[in-house]
Amino acid sequence: KQPVLSNAKKFSKRLIAVGGILLFVVVWFLRNTRFWANLQLMPNSAIIEGLRLKNHEELHKIYKDYLIKNLTWSSPEVKTSQSENVTPNPFRIVCYYITPSNLTRSRDLPPKSVDPYLCTHIIVGFACIQNATIQPRSPNDNQVFKTIINLKNINPELKVLISVEDFSSTGEFAKMVSSDVLRAKFATDTLKFLNTTGFDGVDLDWEFPSWPDADLIQVRNYTLLLEKFRHLINNSFNSTNKNFVLSVAVAAPDLIMRQSYEIQQMAAQVEFVNLMSYDYHLYSQYLPLTGPNAPLYHRNADLGYMETLNTNWSAAHWVEWGMPWAKINVGIPTFGHSFRLVNEDNNGWNAPASGIGKTGEGNGFLSYSEACKFITNPSTTHVFDDEYDVPYAYNGNEWISYDNPISVELKARYVKNNKFGGAMIYSLNCDDFQGSCSPLKFPLTRIVSNILTGN
């Protein structure tokens, strides 16, 4: 006869049984998911960025929520497809042209050499802000402006915009947006500038509002500036029948997207946005590893935050957060980045690097012409990655990430197949405008133009 167990002993045995079941479930979960892989492979840059932002309470919460969501398990790949907001042809082909005052001589594309039929829009960069007014960076730029604007005499369908640039969250842009009076002054002065010069619109290239300083009031002020521009542009159209274009150059990385823009409100004010879907990887002392400048997709080996560093993810999430497909120009670079390998035998993705490479002008930035010269060296090995859909090349300890005709074609077809508003080329200056490695001048831009126009 078995002894009768007391209620306390019965409860203890049940508790042990439940605990065993829970332990089994936890062990099964950890062994059969990518939890540990994601946790262990969390990028150093993300950890450092989280520590740096910890003093900003609101932003830190956003970042913490992001890490919890994206670094505890792998999110499914975002596939960009749609059944509405379809953009009718023609697609926009928006090309940045950089004036000589903003560039080194090797990329000094004479304005008279720009093909007026390659692009639907040419954005001339860059003007700056002084005392809440738009100003050329150099007196010589005024003649360059005239030459580019006169291309409209050859192609009347061409639109030419001026881009106003600021690379600081504490610079002239920040000062200007800080008050309603200065916002009104800048918007009014800019429209006068457009009327006087013959530009068809303005592109605002502020990199970036509220980043990295987490001054979130800048985000609201930036939206208010866009609203002021829209109000004045609408009034100008009603009185003069001139419909000026308002565009914004916008960030691709998730953290900057979330922190710098009120995307839905922005969408109501702008003609389109130019998504800077490049510079995902470049040499940094915080993450001294090789990586692709402008991958179209992520690789299966990319986990957590690293899965977000690609064109597809950025474009899809701009749509998810409120920007219509038809208003997004997906960025396609004609430039790349160079790295100096620590060990020339370790020459793939995520290879340790000790600094920037020497290809180009030694600043880690190289044009397609410079990349082309590098890869035609018989000692250079070039590889095309069919997960990222981009190439890389190496020779000794010199390593470059760049775009070539194949990767550019894939990006252009991505834009067309997913019916985005168009493509943004950065820049005409970095394309092979002399035809040094192609039978045709501007080969990369020409590929995009041919695909999106159906030629």
UniProtKB/TrEMBL annotation:
Transmembrane domains' residue ranges: 12-30
Keyword field contains Transmembrane: yes
Pfam families: Glyco_hydro_18 (PF00704)
Keywords: Disulfide bond, Glycosidase, Hydrolase, Lectin, Membrane, Transmembrane, Transmembrane helix
A GO cellular component annotation in the UniProt record: extracellular region
GO molecular function: carbohydrate binding; chitin binding; chitinase activity
Positions of the GH18 domain: 91-455
Any Gene Ontology biological process: chitin catabolic process
Family of the protein in this entry: Belongs to the glycosyl hydrolase 18 family.
Alphabetical list of PANTHER family matching this protein: CHITINASE, CHITINASE 11
Protein name from the UniProt record: Putative catalytically inactive chitinase-like lectin
Native source species: Triatoma infestans
